Amino acid sequence: MGQKSNLLTLKKVNKNLNLVSYETKTFLYSLQYLKYFETLLAKKNIWLIRKTLVLSSSSVFLALDVFYKSVKTTFYKKKGLSTVKKPLLFSSNQSLIRLFQKNFPLNKINAVTCTINNLNRHLNSTLLSFLYNRTKKFSTNIFVRRFNLYIDFLKLTALLIQNKLSSKNYIHLLSQVFKSLSKRVHTRFLFFLKAIFKLIIEISLPSAINTIKGFKFVINGKLQGKTRASFSCIQEGSVPTQSISKNIDFAKSHVYTLYGVFGMRMWIYRKD
């Protein structure tokens, strides 16, 4: 049996349900609310990493994992990432309850319980400084005039090392980095990914923090503006793709650019 069948069809993965409801209308209202709430946070430069919404007869339970994007990055260029200021959480008020009542007209909401996990507070400042010092040479060619995206990339890479971020969110970040690159920088982007993956595997951290043992990244499309589509594969460390029992996190994404559509796939192997 092939490699793709093993990972996608045979391996049993416990799925986390974002919406828990047995009624069709309640499910649709919940989905509409989560999409609206995610758009509202995006306007405030907040990325909704993970969301869980549970509805009962008169209560709503909402759990969110959020990431604050970097907006003012002037002091990062002067002092590095050692003095990162951690943002505050949301303030609780009646507007959240009114927002629920507006999006759930069929339900009478009496109680709203909202738990927000700010992932910026879990960042390791020592790890961030190490990543910044080892990768700042790439900020002049890969992240041209996008220094805030470079800072967010370092933060989310640190969260990936600390097992606070999934491969689905990380490959979405890679697609944002690749989206606006010119065809002449495609080779530099692949070299940059290879250096990042090698740095993550060889970084000297306690085994309880860094559990990543291997990366595999495949990109398909018209690389460097060629007329025919091709693919490129990057692998660092060990990725046992033929073993079902191993802890392998798989994700894929499509990137729409001026040069066509590119497909990305990534495997991350973590030790059990």
Question: Can you tell me about this structure?
Answer:
Helix content is about 35%, strand content about 25%. It is an alpha/beta fold. It has a four-stranded mixed β-sheet, covered by helices on one side. Strands 6-5-8-7 form a four-stranded antiparallel β-sheet, with helices on one face. Strand 1, helix 2 (about 25-45) and strand 2 form a beta-alpha-beta unit. It is globular and about 55 Å long. The model is unreliable at about 1-10, about 10-15 and about 80-90 (pLDDT under 50).
Bin the helical content: 25-40%
The shape is: globular
Beginning-to-end CA distance, first to last residue: 24 Å
Structural class: alpha/beta
H and E order: HEHEEHHEHHHHEEEE
Model regions low in confidence, pLDDT < 50 over at least 5 residues: 1-10, 12-17, 82-92
Count of DSSP strands:
8
Please state how the strands of the largest beta sheet are arranged side by side: 1-2-3-4
Mean pLDDT: 79
Beta-strand percentage range: 25-35%
Q: Major beta sheet, specifics?
A: 4 strands, mixed
- Assembly type: single chain
Radius of gyration: 21 Å
Total of helices: 8
